[in-house]
């Protein structure tokens, strides 16, 4: 939905709720897609969103669609105060993999009560999905996978496909043997264009790309992207087919991972930090990262104090400290962002540190040369045509920007090799390193050039 139409929907829903115009509200919701309703509810006040969602419960299928599209972080607030009896009908309209994710967002007591109230088969499927790690292939897969015995003919397979009602989405036909082992795959197009009497085992591709249930979801997304797949089968340790991951699941993974990396690199963690929610929790999460930056800043202040006498002799040096630090920090952030993204997308081998460093240094050297010459010329003019001052500032900026690029490249790569999330380690190390080393480099080079 375009931004202007989305805002119009939010304003309209808010106005109808405040006026108690239930009939107008109901007609508006009937004409609006569930995904758009979910997006609008996320921007309303909690009380307003609850009123609208409670009204939707009269149509469990529609309410399920809205809840499934709603921001998972905000789900507990939306369903607060609702009973198990009110929520239970919704789960028969939500795919098992999404239902498992939804249950994981609910309070433990409510989640357990819903599981207990569900039919034995449904409850067993959900509990089985929930036992897998949230960020693994098993955690994002759907157990509703369309698979057929390899001995069937194309005619029998088409009939089975027409009668299938359990599979969520069918992109491929997976072939299994009598033990349930995954042995082949074929596309729907292949199935529809061969002689009806041909057996699947003579038609299928035996070189099946599959993933284990324990594989990290980021690796799953990389495989789907690399081979341009619409779906990816998931197998257990015995290569038995247990589920399928569809492209819509992968899109969710890419979005969530990108959001997590951005939050971590910004030093605000990957917890529930929605605007206006959990003040104390947000403080506890964000303050330690800022303390790391504070430590770097205080260290830089101590270093500057050590050069106080030199600053007294050439006071104009102080004017260029923010520029030197700012440019070094910015080029470091650019380098680290590129490297972290490349690592996350599987486009960069963590062991090729020197290759990545050389590639980034070449780019950063050209950028640093341009910036250092411009600022050096400004220092030359501001310092009454003092060539030594211009050279000192110019060389300092060049060195600090190269330092920023070096840290921005090596820190995430070395972190990845050590098994540490690059997004977590890069921010504080980069900030502190540039604060301390940058100030030191600046004053050492200034002292050498100016003879202080």
Describe the protein.
- This protein is mainly alpha-helical and 452 residues long.
- The chain folds into 3 domains: 3-131, MgtE N-terminal domain-like (MgtE N-terminal fold, Alpha Horseshoe), CATH 1.25.60; 147-257, CBS-domain, CATH 3.10.580; 279-450, SLC41 divalent cation transporters, integral membrane domain (Tetracycline Repressor, domain 2, Orthogonal Bundle).
- 65% of the residues lie in helices and 6% in strands.
- It has 22 helices and 6 strands.
- The strands form 2 sheets. Strands 1-2-3 form a 3-stranded mixed β-sheet. A 3-stranded mixed β-sheet has the order 4-5-6.
- Strand 1, helix 12 (154-163) and strand 2 (172-176) form a beta-alpha-beta unit.
- The longest helix is centred in the C-terminal third of the chain and has 31 residues, at 387-417.
Helix and strand topology:
Elements: H1 3-19, H2 22-30, H3 34-41, H4 46-56, H5 60-69, H6 75-78, H7 84-87, H8 96-105, H9 108-117, H10 120-130, H11 137-140, E1 147-149, H12 154-163, E2 172-176, E3 182-187, H13 188-192, H14 200-203, E4 211-212, H15 217-227, E5 231-235, E6 241-246, H16 247-265, H17 279-306, H18 308-313, H19 321-344, H20 353-382, H21 387-417, H22 422-450
Parallel strand pairs: 1-2, 4-5
Antiparallel strand pairs: 2-3, 5-6
Q: What is the CATH superfamily of the largest domain?
A: SLC41 divalent cation transporters, integral membrane domain
Low-confidence runs of at least 5 consecutive residues: 271-276
Radius of gyration: 29 Å
Percent range for helical residues?
A: 55-70%
Determine the strand fraction and express it as a percent band. 5-15%
Query: If you consult CATH, what is the topology of the largest domain?
Result: Tetracycline Repressor, domain 2
Distance between the termini: 63 Å
Pairing-aware structural class of the strands and helices?
A: mainly alpha
**CATH architecture label name of the largest domain:** Orthogonal Bundle
| Cα shape | globular
Average pLDDT across residues?
A: 84
Q: In total, how many beta strands?
A: 6
Which sequence of SSEs, written as H and E, runs from N to C?
HHHHHHHHHHHEHEEHHEHEEHHHHHHH
Question: Which strand order spans the largest sheet, edge to edge or round the barrel?
Answer: 1-2-3
Number of helices: 22
